[in-house]
Amino acid sequence: MSLTGDLLALMAIPGLSGHEDRVRRAIAERLDAAGLAHRTDVLGNLIAEIPGDGPRVMIFTHMDQLGFVVRRIEDDGALRVERLGGVPERTMAAQAVTVGTRAGDLTGVIATKAHHATQPDEKYVVLKAPEIRIDCGFSTRAEAEAAGVRIGDPVTWRAQALELANGRIAGTSVDDRAGCAVLLDLARRWADAPPGPPVALVWSVQEEFNLRGAQVAAQALAPRIALQIDLMLATDTPDMADRGDMRLGGGPGISLYSFHGRGTLNGVIPHPALVRLFEDTAAATAIPLQRSAQTGVLTDLSYVQLVGEGVAALDLGFPMRHSHSPVEMVDPADLTQLADLLAAALPRIGPDFALDRD
Ligand SMILES: [Zn+2]
What we know:
Blueprint: H1 3-11, H2 21-33, E1 39-40, E2 46-50, E3 57-62, E4 67-73, E5 79-84, E6 96-101, E7 104-110, E8 134-135, H3 141-146, E9 154-157, E10 161-163, E11 169-171, H4 174-188, E12 199-204, H5 213-221, E13 225-233, E14 253-259, E15 267-268, H6 272-285, E16 290-295, H7 301-304, E17 312-320, E18 328-330, H8 332-345
Parallel strand pairs: 3-12, 3-13, 13-17, 14-16
Antiparallel strand pairs: 1-2, 2-12, 4-5, 4-9, 6-7, 6-9, 7-8, 10-11, 11-18, 14-15, 14-17
The protein binds zinc ion.
The site of zinc ion has 6 residues, from helix 4 and strand 13.
């Protein structure tokens, strides 16, 4: 299976935070096929450990996606929801969704008022997530309940993957199934890989639910080095141009600075030895490496770096446009180069790899 094949397959599987089980099983099946042992912890993180010599490295990527949770079933069968994760409310109108019930998946649409009846003062108003109604075609609450819908059921954008010009792919949950596919690609290379440090590959849970799974995995694995694979905000569109210089199709990226800037006030300033490692590897392999420094960005790594006596940390990623919308866009060439870069960098982490600051 190719990296792009994995990406398209994984994008098709709903996996709201806390409901990643089908995504995990799909990845576990691929690990089985590659002959790699794995285990799952109580939160649902999927972990594959590969022995080696040197400082222990944890490379992780999240399986979950954002969405909604059913809060109430109305008398007319419409579903009302709570938002889970950073769903952009501007993208909600008229979208199709999947409701995961105990009886199976249902399709619904986010109701949109008839244009003919929309008043001038309503035209430019964005509804909040708790205000929307999801119409699955039911006429009564009893019908919805008979179909298996219950309070607490997960709701995600209806899965789609669109193949665009230049091989680019747009669709749901590219964040972070693209990372999952990169990590799978890396796992498949292991049989032929040169000796390197002990590595734990982690497909983590509940990232979009305020960054929970990877921290637990790090507590158990006690790595000295942690590498996160997630999106980097592409800034090659006019609305984003101010924020940096990250081009879709321009190769993988590293983050030199991330800061939430609100809420958690968390962020990551990477360990200089890891920045140097990836810069040197990129130069030696002629893989382009883009740089990111962003406020408004927060990843699991913020918490992972604080585990134990501290973990040397670096965010790596792929440029992505239209983040958190149902049409997140990625260039598969960036993903392949990211996997190439990781495969080339890991053997350079020998037993003498220095993490001291002086
Ligand atoms: Zn992500």
